[in-house]
């Protein structure tokens, strides 16, 4: 029996493939939702089916224009509470809006995570489901907002998925010497988490290497040196946000210069911001780079869609399982266990998109 009422899936994204897959796995149909614009550009949201008494999960994709899509999300939250009121309102942000602005670093600056948390709280959002947060402080910001205990955040770590992918590649390709690589010091903790999963869960020895870098301008970096053993080894380069991809390109070069034999790149979020094409093409055309894998937290675009080296880790099985557990108030602990996650993905072997990796 449902703890919070029947589940309703509402999606205001332009590309609804992800939420449609999640709904299919849950055995339901998504609610039809219309996003329309007035002549002056104002937004109107209309949910075409009743959400009265339902446990509503609103999906929103992180895509430009960011502010416009966030405004649509706020309008959708209100729509879920007018007329037949939803029993509970959850927001599914695979890429959490504002997650890279969790603190103020100077005077007269905004903290984007605070803005997002306060806005969602004011609109009556009860809970947020997200994956691969850039900073662990974000859930605390959401929970500290408002007077009713804030907004609880169910944060699914991407590291178990990256660990499963890495372990599978090492075993399948019979890789003898492997290293987990971080493209910068800031990513060391998450990269070490993946290394630990591979080593302790699958009993596969794997080293750790870190690329040190100096930032030369906004979103532009220059790698200086590598700490750790990569000579004649296969490097699994792990990062969270794939923006311009300059960091990944520089780290790839640094690892190669230090003797890396081949490189697999794992990125959580394919943001692919302005100017990414040049660096993606350089990385894809590098013979040492065997594969570039993104989580499908948002749709791929441009050459990332068509290039054979670019693959995706499908997140629909994990998100659908999380929603089911949230709806029933079941424990989420197993969704942080690499082997339990593998079982979930075995159940959904029907995810046969040729872009998807298998593990």
Describe this structure in words.
The protein is an alpha/beta fold and 359 residues long. It folds into 2 domains: 7-156 and 316-335, 3-Layer(aba) Sandwich (Rossmann fold), CATH 3.40.50; 159-313, Rossmann fold. 33% of the residues lie in helices and 24% in strands. It has 11 helices and 14 strands. It has helices spanning 17-26, 66-79, 112-122, 138-143, 159-172, 188-202, 246-257, 276-284, 303-306, 316-328, 338-347; strands at 7-11, 33-37, 43-47, 55-59, 88-93, 127-131, 153-156, 178-182, 207-217, 220-227, 234-241, 262-269, 289-295, 310-313. The protein has a 7-stranded mixed sheet, with helices on both faces. Helix 5 crosses helix 6, helix 5 crosses helix 11 (338-347) and helix 7 (246-257) packs parallel to helix 8 (276-284). The radius of gyration is 21 Å and the shape is globular. 45% of the residues are buried. The model has no long low-confidence stretch (mean pLDDT 92).
């Amino acid at each position: 029996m449902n703890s919070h009422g029947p589940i309703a899936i509402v999606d205001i994204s332009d590309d609804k493939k992800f939420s449609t897959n999640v709904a299919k796995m849950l055995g339901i149909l998504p609610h039809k939702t219309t996003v329309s614009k007035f002549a002056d550009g104002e937004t109107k949201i209309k949910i075409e089916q009743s959400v009265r008494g339902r446990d509503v999960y609103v999906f929103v994709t992180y895509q430009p224009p960011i502010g416009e899509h966030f405004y649509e999300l706020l309008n959708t939250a209100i729509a879920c509470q007018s007329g037949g009121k939803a029993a509970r309102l959850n927001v599914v942000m695979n890429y959490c809006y504002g997650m890279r602005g969790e603190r103020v670093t100077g005077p007269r600056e905004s903290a984007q995570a605070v803005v997002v948390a306060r806005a969602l709280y004011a609109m009556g959002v009860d809970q947020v489901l997200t994956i691969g947060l850039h900073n662990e402080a974000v859930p605390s910001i959401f929970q500290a907002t408002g007077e009713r205990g804030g907004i609880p955040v169910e944060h699914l770590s991407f590291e178990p998925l990256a660990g499963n992918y890495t372990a599978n590649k090492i075993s399948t390709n019979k890789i003898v010497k492997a290293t987990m690589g971080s493209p910068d010091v800031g990513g060391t903790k998450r990269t070490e988490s993946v290394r630990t999963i591979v080593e302790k869960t699958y009993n596969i020895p794997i080293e750790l290497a870190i690329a040190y870098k100096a930032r030369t301008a906004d979103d532009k970096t220059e790698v200086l040196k590598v700490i750790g053993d990569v000579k004649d080894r296969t490097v699994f380069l792990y990062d969270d946000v794939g923006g311009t991809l300059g960091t990944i390109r520089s780290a790839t070069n640094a690892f190669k210069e230090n003797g890396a034999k081949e490189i697999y790149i794992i990125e959580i979020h394919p943001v692919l911001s302005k100017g990414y094409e040049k660096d993606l093409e350089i990385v894809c055309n590098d013979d040492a780079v065997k594969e570039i894998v993104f989580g499908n937290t948002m749709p791929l675009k441009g050459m990332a869609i068509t290039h054979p080296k670019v693959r995706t880790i499908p997140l629909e099985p994990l998100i659908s399982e999380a929603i089911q557990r949230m709806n029933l108030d079941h424990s989420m602990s197993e969704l942080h266990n690499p082997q339990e996650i593998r079982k979930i993905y075995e159940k959904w072997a029907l995810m046969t998109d040729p872009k998807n990796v298998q593990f």
